[in-house]
């Protein structure tokens, strides 16, 4: 029996093949190198305090379809006004109901960098995401063998983008560092079992080099949890569901950013 994770990856492979049949790799590669330069992810993440990466998403694997309070572009605008350092956009179609076109619309609405949230397994996706406005690309260690991880990491950086190398356990964290990752995201969600390990960041972050940017992903819901991650050394936290369903996304964004800038939080 296949797992949810295996189904996601199989779907991604099929969707990439279908898109590549329409726009060949050589064409998408050429287009990606003619785009405007990526926005500066590193400066955004290295600003004082713990940074908020606000996530635009239509579907949550734990709770199902999300009822938006605002249109995606309006959500992104409120996130930026509220102080979010980056905006994350889901582009995986089958499980998260995202799209590259929606990411492009969001990027055109805001001036902060854009994190593409997807399952990246093929060089085609990296060039494609750049064409649609991505400034930061996620690479999940669990999906990639080491040579593939290193190759995709090099490709992301060759296009001037930043790579968010996602890990779930100390063994994957070692692989991320060995590959040369300068930004490591600790994802509390295990897509093989669809469970959350809220202690994952505390277990992994202390073992990461001090010069590596550390990001906490999945299952962060409120200011108290953001502050807890920040106090444990998170340089940034990704928050999605609670923001897009908030009565006032702008007010909650401001509250989260305020918590992340608390004087008691460690600073680089």
TrEMBL record:
GO terms classed as biological process: L-tryptophan biosynthetic process
Reaction catalysis annotation: 1-(2-carboxyphenylamino)-1-deoxy-D-ribulose 5-phosphate + H(+) = (1S,2R)-1-C-(indol-3-yl)glycerol 3-phosphate + CO2 + H2O
Organism: Corynebacterium mustelae
GO molecular function, one term: indole-3-glycerol-phosphate synthase activity
Keyword set, alphabetical order: Amino-acid biosynthesis, Aromatic amino acid biosynthesis, Decarboxylase, Lyase, Tryptophan biosynthesis
Pathway: Amino-acid biosynthesis; L-tryptophan biosynthesis; L-tryptophan from chorismate: step 4/5
Protein name, UniProt field: indole-3-glycerol-phosphate synthase
PANTHER family recorded: INDOLE-3-GLYCEROL-PHOSPHATE SYNTHASE, TRYPTOPHAN BIOSYNTHESIS PROTEIN
Domain Indole-3-glycerol phosphate synthase positions: 6-254
Signal peptide (from-to): none
Catalytic activity, EC: 4.1.1.48
Keyword Amino-acid biosynthesis appears in the UniProt entry: yes
Keyword RNA-binding assigned: no
Enzyme class: lyase
A Pfam family of this chain: IGPS
């Amino acid at each position: 029996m296949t797992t949810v994770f295996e189904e996601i990856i199989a779907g991604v492979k099929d969707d990439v093949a279908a898109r590549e049949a329409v726009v060949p790799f050589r064409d998408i590669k050429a287009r990606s190198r003619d785009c405007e330069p990526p926005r500066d992810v590193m400066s955004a993440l290295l600003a004082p305090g713990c940074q908020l990466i606000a996530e635009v998403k239509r579907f949550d694997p734990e709770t199902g379809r999300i009822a938006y309070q605002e249109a995606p572009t309006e959500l992104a605008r409120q996130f930026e006004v509220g102080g979010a350092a980056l905006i994350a956009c889901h582009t995986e179609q089958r499980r998260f109901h995202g799209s590259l076109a929606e990411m492009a619309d969001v990027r055109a609405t805001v001036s902060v960098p854009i994190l593409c949230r997807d399952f990246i397994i093929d060089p085609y996706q990296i060039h494609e995401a750049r064409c649609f406005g991505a400034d930061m690309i996620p690479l999940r260690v669990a999906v990639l063998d080491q040579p593939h991880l290193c190759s995709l990491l090099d490709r992301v950086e060759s296009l001037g983008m930043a790579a968010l190398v996602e890990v779930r356990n100390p063994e994957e964290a070692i692989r991320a560092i060995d590959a040369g990752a300068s930004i490591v995201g600790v994802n509390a969600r295990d897509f093989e079992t669809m469970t959350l390990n809220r202690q994952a960041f505390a277990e992994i972050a202390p073992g990461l080099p001090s010069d590596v940017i550390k990001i906490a992903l999945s299952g962060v819901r409120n200011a108290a949890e953001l502050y807890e991650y920040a106090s444990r050394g998170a340089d940034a936290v990704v928050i999605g569901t609670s923001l897009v369903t908030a009565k006032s996304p702008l007010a909650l964004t401001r509250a989260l950013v305020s918590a992340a800038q608390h004087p008691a939080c460690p600073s680089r």
